[in-house]
Design brief:
mainly beta, 2 helices, disordered N terminus, Porin, globular
Length: 331
């Protein structure tokens, strides 16, 4: 029995894949989406994000982040900090990122701006091997508290870098970002040759954009109504994912509907889901909650995904000349 379990563990381990953590409210976690969004308003902004994916599965995926960014009028630049942690599994396998973000805004045409950005990040991978149950601890008479398994390092750290570029006008925006340019190491084992290490994070490409539609105020409708149609496409190794949806905003209420997946695309790593968002948005405060309905065969086993975002913006001094604001949504 022990031998069968050991073989199953080895065979399963050879087929395990993983991708970066993701957020359904990716425009509320703007620094994680792309460094070009750093300092995208004239205010200072503090953001908190929390995601609980598949809560019905014991020790599922839990991700949370905190970020702060500021716009510097004199330099037409944005500077920000992002701290994010993702944790999952009985062994509390975790990834912790500390990143410094920078962006610069300049005008290329009368109504169009270009915003390149970059991010330098320290990333650390950790696991609690003492919380794991090894094959030599399993027996018919009960599990043994000790194991002869030689465990590797508990954590490993590395440096990473990403870059992006964003173009936008009053009504449209589009951009592309490239993450993990330095392909950081996440292996708990030591490899003399870097090329021999199978645990280097692959490059990730993200393409995003959308349009903003505003219905102006009238006597019968004193509060303007705004629609945002947006998309996000990501590619990392064999993984492909498309998020497309619409936001409706009439102060102070926000509603959003998203579809995740690529129709008729049968790749094994693609997962389909439908996301519903509800939010409260006033001048300086955004609060959002979203729930993912899973469409795959895991629909009855996972419990979907819950996500909460909170952002607060504030001024430290008066801006002489307001920068052109991005038309993209805040959730």
């Amino acid at each position: 029995m022990k031998r069968i379990i050991y073989i199953l563990i080895l065979s399963a381990g050879s087929m395990v894949y993983g991708q970066d953590p993701q957020f359904s409210q990716f425009y509320s976690n703007y620094l994680y989406l792309a460094p070009s969004f750093t300092g995208l308003t004239e205010n200072n902004r503090l953001s908190l994000n929390y995601r609980n994916q598949w809560p019905e599965i014991p020790n599922g995926f839990v991700t949370y982040s905190i970020s702060f960014d500021k716009y510097f009028e004199k330099f037409r630049s944005g500077l920000g900090l992002l701290v994010m942690k993702d944790e999952a599994g009985t062994g509390r396998l975790s990834t912790t990122n500390f990143g410094i973000h920078y962006s610069f805004d300049f005008r290329i045409f009368k109504n169009w701006h270009l915003r390149p950005g970059m991010n330098l990040m320290y990333t650390e991978r950790g696991v609690d091997f003492n919380a794991l149950l090894w094959n030599d601890q399993i027996s018919a008479s009960g599990n043994s508290p000790t194991t002869s398994e030689m465990t590797p390092m508990d954590n490993v750290g590395d440096i990473d870098f990403s870059t992006s570029v964003l173009g936008y006008s009053d009504r449209f925006w589009f951009g592309v970002s490239i993450d993990h340019i330095l392909r950081p190491n996440q292996s708990f084992y030591f490899y003399e040759q870097a090329d021999d290490n199978p645990a280097r994070v692959p490059l990730k490409y993200s393409f995003y954009g959308g349009t903003k539609i505003v219905k102006n105020e009238s006597l019968l409708r004193p509060i303007p109504t705004t629609f945002h149609i947006a998309y996000l496409f990501k590619a990392q190794e064999k993984f492909r994912q498309l998020d497309v949806g619409i936001y409706w905003h009439r102060s102070p209420i926000v509603l959003g509907f998203w579809y995740r997946g690529i129709p008729f695309y049968k790749e094994v790593f693609n997962r389909d889901a439908f996301t519903i968002l509800t939010g409260y948005k006033v001048r300086n405060l955004n609060i959002g909650y979203s729930y993912d309905f899973t469409f795959s065969r895991l629909i009855a086993k996972t419990g979907g995904s819950h996500e909460v975002s909170v952002s607060y913006s504030f001024k430290t001094k008066k801006i002489k000349r307001k920068p052109r604001m991005l038309p993209c949504p805040d959730f």
